[in-house]
Design a protein that fits this description.
Blueprint: H1 16-27, E1 34-37, H2 44-52, E2 60-62, H3 69-73, E3 75-77, H4 78-84, E4 88-90, H5 93-96, E5 101-104, H6 112-124, E6 126-131, E7 134-139, E8 143-148, H7 157-160, E9 165-168, H8 175-190, H9 192-198, H10 200-217, H11 224-237, H12 243-259, H13 266-271, H14 273-277
Helix pairs in contact: 1-10, 1-12, 8-9, 10-12, 11-12
């Protein structure tokens, strides 16, 4: 737990899909994190901070937008290594986030190589630094939360695919819900400790549920029946690669643990389907409908009234002129 109170996740109004995706990623950080898409002012950072309270360390670390690679992974003091024979390591952002939440705002504006590095470490749980033959390895197990506003740029598909879950927030919130959001925010800002105290029981219940799910997770089998359903649906969605299948199966298992179940069911598969497929689904063009008789049209076949391929378009005619009747000049 941190000394600075975070807005409780249990007190967030709406955003149920995102709250579920965050909790499932807290249950199984190997899912690869959550990418949140949405316009400005949608409380994306508030939700990410609220997730930190559900973890054992409560650690919440933000990656600055202008961070360098050394700031991210840490540095090795080569002079100390040469003179004293030991690797002196200065921790970076990845080391500080171990056991907590690493929040990357506007991840689509980061250099691609930093995003790639982030995702590698998030998937492996280990950060390896190598400089001039000297190496240092440390644990970096964190829940990765990235946010982006699609209007400000996109992530390359190769990087987008490596986020485990993808959730989109809509900016069109109903008036009653908007008022409730603002009221709770004002109450929190005026008395953070008192507000958190009001929600302490519900937040403790949410934290306990995540803790029980983490303890149950490894006992739930990744069974072949669930895998068969998921692979069929990934194939039907036209996703590239196999990461969607793996993330979907692990996500379904995390959801089963969230329910307190001992096996993956259809309910678990459906619950995480959109999280795993939204950023990987390929748009498929419908197949051309063959003409009556079952024969496909030949390239030079054209509908009645249209020319064949390569024909020049008919010249435009003056209004009132007819193509089949020539217009002659009048007699003087």
């Amino acid at each position: 737990m941190t000394d600075i109170p975070h807005f409780p996740l249990s007190a967030v109004v709406g955003a149920d899909d995102l709250k579920l995706a965050l909790c499932l990623t807290a249950i199984d950080p190997k899912l690869g994190g959550v990418l949140i898409e949405g316009p400005r002012g949608m409380a994306k950072s508030t939700l990410a901070r609220g997730l930190a309270d559900l973890l054992a360390s409560g650690q919440f670390v933000t990656l600055p937008l202008g961070a360098t690679e050394e700031r991210l992974v840490g540095t090795l003091d080569l002079d100390a290594a040469l003179s004293e024979g030991r690797a002196q390591f200065t921790p970076g952002v990845l080391a500080k986030a171990d056991g907590g939440v690493l929040y990357v705002d506007e991840v689509n504006l980061l250099p691609d190589h930093l995003v790639d590095l982030l995702l590698d470490v998030a998937a492996s749980g280990t950060n390896l630094i190598e400089r001039d033959g000297i190496s240092h390895r440390h644990s970096a197990r964190f829940v990765l939360i990235g946010t982006m506003n699609p209007e400000e740029g996109e992530l390359r598909p190769q990087l987008l695919d490596r986020f485990g879950f993808n959730v989109a927030l809509s900016g069109h919130t109903q008036p009653a819900e908007r008022g409730q959001i603002i009221r709770r925010r004002l109450d929190f800002d005026s008395d953070p400790q008192g507000f958190c105290g009001q929600w302490a029981d519900r937040q403790a219940a949410l934290r306990e549920r995540c803790t029980r799910a983490r303890a149950l997770l490894d006992s739930i089998p990744l069974d072949d029946q669930a895998l068969a359903q998921i692979t069929e649906r990934c194939f039907a969605a036209g996703v590239d690669g196999l990461r969607a299948d793996l993330v979907w199966l692990r996500g379904a298992r995390a959801h089963a643990a969230w329910r307190g179940a001992t096996a993956i069911s259809e309910e678990d598969i459906e619950a995480v389907a959109e999280f795993a497929l939204r950023h990987r689904r390929q748009e498929q063009s419908p197949p051309a409908t063959p003409p009556a008789g079952g024969q496909s049209p030949k390239p030079n076949d054209a509908p009645e009234g249209q020319g064949q391929w390569g024909d020049m378009p008919a010249p435009a005619l003056p209004i009132g002129a007819r193509r089949d009747v020539p217009t002659w000049p009048k007699k003087p």
